[in-house]
Design brief:
five-stranded mixed beta sheet; globular; alpha+beta; 11 helices; seven-stranded antiparallel beta sheet
Length: 404
C-alpha cells in the first residue's frame, strides 16, 4: 500500500528564499504553458497542444532562461506540466458529462504552493545526510534542508513534494510499504449518523458533540477581516508591511481552524476503527447539500425576486462546512483500510424517518429535529440514534448481499 507522510521543514533564510523562487518559477512555467495552449486553440487552425509537445520544449526553455528555469529539476518541471495537462483532461471530461466545466485558470504566486518530484533521487533526495542525527532533504537549487521528522518513514520513498502553507514549509512523502497487520477483531458493529447539533450519533445511543471550530473562530475572523478592509486593495508587491500582516493574520486563523478539524476527525475516526469491526455510514452527497437555492423571479414585478430562504440556507451551509463530514469520512476509510476494518456506505434516504421497530416510514415520525415518535406503533427515541440504527441495518443488508 501507499502511505503519505507530512513533515515540517526548517529552512534557513536563504533556503526559504530559494524555495519561494522555485515556486515562483514553476508557477511561471505553468502559466506560460497555459497561455500557449490558449493561443494555439484561438488560432484559426484550432491547434490542440498536448503534454508531450510541451515537455519536449523544456530543454530549449531551460537553455534560454538558465537563471530562472535552468537551475531547477527537469523532472519537477515535467510534473508541473502534467498538472496542467490533468486540469485540461478534467475540463474536457466535465464538458462531455454535462457538468460545469471550469476552464483552467492562471495561477497567482499565492495560489501555486506545491512542487512535485516524481521520483526520490531525481532532483531531490530524502534523508540526504544519513550519518547526521538531524534529518535533511536535498533539493536541486536549494540545498540540504532540515526536516522535523516526528515519526519514522516505513518503506521505500517514491515521490516527494514541497508545500508552502503561510510562512511554513512542509515536505510530503509517499512510501510504498507492505499491508500492515490488521487490528484484532472486536466482534462489534456500528452505524453512524452525521449531524450538525451532534457531530455523529451511533447505533448504541452514544453521541460525539460537534466542536464547531469555525463558529468559535468567527469573532476573531470578523475582526481580522474588518481590519483588512481598511486597507486599499492593491497588488501583492505594493502592499505595506501592515497590510501584509493583516492578510497573514486571516490566513493563520483559517489554517488553525483547518488543523483543528483535521485533529478532531483523526481522533474520532481512530476511536471508531479501534472499537468496531464493521462501520456503516450514510453516503452523503455533500456538494449537493451545500448548493445555494435557486432564485425565484417575481411574476408580478419584473426584476424583483421572491423569498427563497437563501439566508437560512447559507447558515446551514456554513454549519455543514464547519462540521467537515467529507474530511472525516475520507480519514475514516483510510484508517479502516490500514486496520483491516470494513466501512460500508448506504443510501441516506428516509433513515431518520423509518421506525426501527416496525419499519413504518413517514415524515410525521420526526416531529422535531431531535425527537422521533412513530405514528404507527408509538416508538420514541432520539432521531439521530434512529438514523444510526437504520444505517447499520441497511449496511448489514448490503454486506450480506455483496459478500467479499
Amino acid at each position: 500500500m501507499i502511505r503519505a507522510y507530512k513533515f515540517l521543514m526548517r529552512p534557513t533564510v536563504g533556503q526559504a528564499a530559494a524555495l519561494a523562487a522555485m515556486l515562483a518559477d514553476h508557477c511561471s512555467l505553468y502559466n506560460g504553458a497555459l497561455q500557449e495552449r490558449r493561443d494555439a486553440y484561438r488560432h484559426a487552425s484550432k491547434t490542440s497542444i498536448k503534454y508531450g509537445q510541451q515537455s519536449a520544449q523544456l530543454k530549449d526553455i531551460r537553455g534560454f532562461d538558465p537563471e530562472r528555469q535552468g537551475r531547477w529539476s527537469f523532472s519537477s518541471q515535467q510534473a508541473t506540466l502534467r498538472r496542467l495537462d490533468k486540469a485540461f483532461t478534467a475540463f474536457f471530461r466535465r464538458i462531455k458529462s454535462g457538468e460545469t466545466p471550469g476552464y483552467p485558470r492562471f495561477r497567482g504566486v499565492n495560489w501555486f504552493d506545491t512542487v512535485d518530484f516524481p521520483k526520490d533521487g531525481d532532483g531531490c533526495r530524502w534523508d540526504s545526510t544519513p550519518r547526521d542525527p538531524v534529518t535533511r532533504v536535498r533539493f536541486q537549487g536549494v540545498g540540504h534542508v532540515k526536516v522535523n521528522q516526528h515519526r519514522p518513514v516505513v518503506g521505500r520513498v517514491k515521490t516527494v513534494s514541497v508545500k508552502r502553507e503561510g510562512k511554513r514549509w512542509y515536505i510530503i512523502l509517499t512510501a510504498g510499504q507492505p499491508q500492515p497487520e490488521p487490528l484484532p477483531p472486536t466482534g462489534s458493529m456500528v452505524g453512524i449518523d452525521m449531524g450538525i447539533a451532534n457531530f455523529l450519533a451511533d447505533s448504541g445511543g452514544e453521541f460525539v458533540p460537534s466542536p464547531r471550530h469555525g463558529r468559535e473562530a468567527a469573532a476573531k475572523l470578523e475582526a481580522a477581516q474588518q481590519a483588512l478592509s481598511r486597507f486599499p486593495r492593491v497588488r501583492r508587491d505594493k502592499r505595506t508591511a501592515s497590510h501584509q500582516r493583516a492578510v497573514d493574520k486571516i490566513a493563520g486563523l483559517h489554517r488553525k481552524v483547518r488543523r483543528q478539524r483535521l485533529d478532531h476527525a483523526h481522533k474520532t475516526a481512530l476511536d471508531l476503527v479501534r472499537e468496531y469491526d464493521v462501520i456503516a455510514h450514510e453516503d452523503l452527497k455533500i456538494r449537493n447539500m451545500v448548493r445555494a437555492p435557486k432564485s425565484k423571479p417575481d411574476p408580478e414585478q419584473p426584476g424583483s425576486f421572491l423569498a427563497n430562504g437563501a439566508a437560512a440556507k447559507a447558515g446551514l451551509n456554513r454549519s455543514i462546512a464547519d462540521a467537515g463530514w467529507g474530511v472525516f469520512l475520507t480519514i475514516l476509510h483510510a484508517k479502516a483500510e490500514s486496520a483491516g476494518r470494513e466501512v460500508i456506505a448506504v443510501d441516506p434516504r428516509n433513515t431518520s424517518r423509518t421506525c426501527p421497530e416496525c419499519g413504518h416510514v413517514s415524515a410525521e415520525n420526526r416531529p422535531t429535529q431531535e425527537k422521533f415518535h412513530c405514528v404507527s406503533r408509538g416508538h420514541s427515541a432520539h432521531a439521530d440514534t434512529v438514523g444510526a440504527l437504520n444505517v447499520l441495518r441497511a449496511g448489514l443488508v448490503r454486506r450480506d448481499a455483496n459478500p467479499a
